[in-house]
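Budget justification, computational time. The allocation requested in the original proposal was used primarily to generate structure tokens for proteins on the priority list. As evidence of use, we reproduce two of the resulting records. The first is shown immediately below.
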Amino acid sequence: MKNDDIELLATKGGKPVKMWTQGVPVEAEAKEQLQKLAQMPFLFHHVAVMPDVHVGKGSTIGSVIPTLGAVIPAAVGVDIGCGMMAAKTTLRANDLPDNLAKLRSAIEQAVPHGRATNGMSPKTRNHKGSRDVGSWNNPPPVVDAGWARLRAEFDEICRKYPKLRGTNNYKHLGTLGSGNHFVEVCLDEEGAVWIMLHSGSRGVGNAIGTHFIELARQDMRRHQVNLPDQDLAYLEEGTQHYDDYVEAVGWAQKFARINREVMMENAIRAVRSVITKPFETHVEAVNCHHNYVQKERHFGKDVLLTRKGAVSARAGELGIIPGSMGAKSFIVRGKGNPESFNSCSHGAGRVMSRTEAKRRFTRLDAERATEGVECRKDEGVIDEIPMAYKDIDAVMHAQRELVEVVHTLKQVVCVKG
């Protein structure tokens, strides 16, 4: 397999950093983060960097981090198990209603989304409360069924860490959140209708990630470990905190996957309420994480592999690489490139912070950039404007040796919190 598309980042000792970033911008701060990460003594072989790379907490988003005998909780992050799900339907473009606002409204009613601070009325949602309008008031049976698959393991985790029980877990199952999370109705290159969504482990994953990041920092202080960045605090294999984290993070990833399944079921039901023509779903379906950690075998070793904003792309494996609001997305098939640890990017990747996007762009800019898409176009989503992201075509070209495109999707409806 060709690897002439790999760029090497100059580092002062430590492990190599291999980057699939030809033709896409990489901020200096991201390179600095990667250089610090490369110094960690338990890294294995090299760090793989995807073309959507940008600054994150602890390590860059868009990086693949193999470790032996340790894990960095901040590298996994607090949106544990965040990922994508897409399902192809038997509907065609001409089956969609002329009034796409009605379709968007039905999905908004079916899938709780956003937060109390986003300025949207709770009366338009299936839930209540000024604290978090993005949670259920009375969860439907599909949420109960999903929670039944999670409850016993969660009870065991909470037995050791009781403060985690206070998080909004059960009522967040099957909900979207805010930021770059979304539910979309898309058309592929042949006019087939897809339903696609992006979300993770919601409040409970955030609580688990935050708690163990702090425990790792405490361990570093206790053992007087000198770190290049405090967010690189790690948990050593063989310790109680390590074992408990691996258990908790595995559960949060399971929560995230079920969360997407529940949302997809409710979104499909919403589409059926608007489109009366009978149709099938899951003709082709993908459900993949892009913020997670798991044991994998690479270069002859069993390693703990952290994908922070990266998707598994084993040979023949399907994945999802979304663009931004107004940009196309891709269903891809992995090529199994060992140098990338069988990984690819998780999206386009930001080129500026949310604060900078809000400073630079206006609501009129957002309206122009999302022309033809039925979606929010108010000040609350300016930070998600397409111009705040890298060019998705350049990102895809940079990882041409990692994945092949199976379907190209263009959204016609987008729901954001």
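The second record produced under the same allocation is shown here.
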Amino acid sequence: MAGLPALPDAEKIDAIWKAALEKMHGVRIMVLDDDPTGVQTVHDIPVFTDWSEEAIGAAMAGDYPLSFILTNSRAFSAQETEKAHEEMAQRIAAAAKKGGYGYLIMSRGDSTLRGHYPLETDVLRRTMERAGDKVDGEIICPYFAEGGRFTIDSVHYVKMGQELVPAGETEFARDATFGYRASDLRDWVEEKTAGRIQAAQVERLTLAEIRSGDVEGIAEKLAGLNGRALVADGVCEGDMRLLSAAIALAVASGKRFIFRTAAGLVKALGGIESRPLLGREELRLPGGKGGLILVGSHVQKTTAQLNSLLELEGVVQREFDITKPLEQESRAARAWAEEALQKGQVAVIYTSRKRAQVPGGPEEQLKFSVAVSAAVTDIVKQLEVTPGFLIAKGGITSSDIGIKGLGVKRAMVAGQAAPGIPVWRCGEESRFPGLSYVIFPGNVGDEDTLRNMVAGLR
């Protein structure tokens, strides 16, 4: 991007990055993901859909650079979120001590700044420190290039067309449950903590500092946080690799951090290289019939993508009417989908585009959204025809379908169907073993991304 300090040579960055990560070898990275979309930059990584002692023990013992625990906490109440994160932190700390591992916990949240922040990181920090594991600082980094999310001079931007729009001026900032006003991440921390942490108390790491390549100096800065929060700039993967190198050096020196981050830093800190996008042969299930697409997200981008998809020849559609009794509507939609799949068609079911007016505050709105998602999930849970492919659009929708509809306990991230759009390979315990389950975030892609994807899968 014009006007930004230039990156050091790519080969030099890679050498610095790999050498630094080696110093952190053996440290287990546990990524707590508040919806299933956080795996949108990684591949050949396990996702566990519960945080039982057994699941966390298996994640800790696995030979992977990192493991994801799907919390789906963006669909939780504040009380449910607090309870779940306390349980997870207790079990992770206990498993680490039992196995003799070092560990880091990354709270992976939305790159457009929605979710239970600072609640989740506050609970994690408190619980870890009660277990005797001091937290030396909090690193906040919502960079996610595949979705067009960049942080420059501590201001977080969302790419809209060819324009970078400050996050606080987007539709995401007007979210009914997790809304905010600030675009400067220091101000955002002050806003979300209701002034408990003042913007002036938040440290910052600029692009100029990152691109200096002085990872030892940055590591010293991180080591000196003394528990404070730091917001980090980022506009490309090289920035994340240099930041990760500095984090690794600080961790190797005995420091421990808590993270609130989008998917970009997760990939870099895990040492994960890029791989080509998945093709038709990797995404279609042999013997499956037709394809099923379920759309729950209501953001403007999703609606535009849906409208583009419905113009594609051979696609059949049905609205899931949220004003009708949800159980009745679910049964009718499932019967319709089974008939379409038997014919080899691509069946699209989408929830009413107009949001229901729910009496009460954000918590009541969230409860209704969860009830709608559960009804849509029942379509998959009761489905008697195996689809050739399955795509879910939206965070709550895709989580419910994966866990409750498909019955996935552990999946492997196969890769991405398109930039920022992850694919789970369903395990043997699931309803459709081997199915490629495409998790399409509501806020990723351009207007024709979904249409182009489906055209290539038919």
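A brief technical remark on that second record: The first strand starts at residue 27 and ends at 33.
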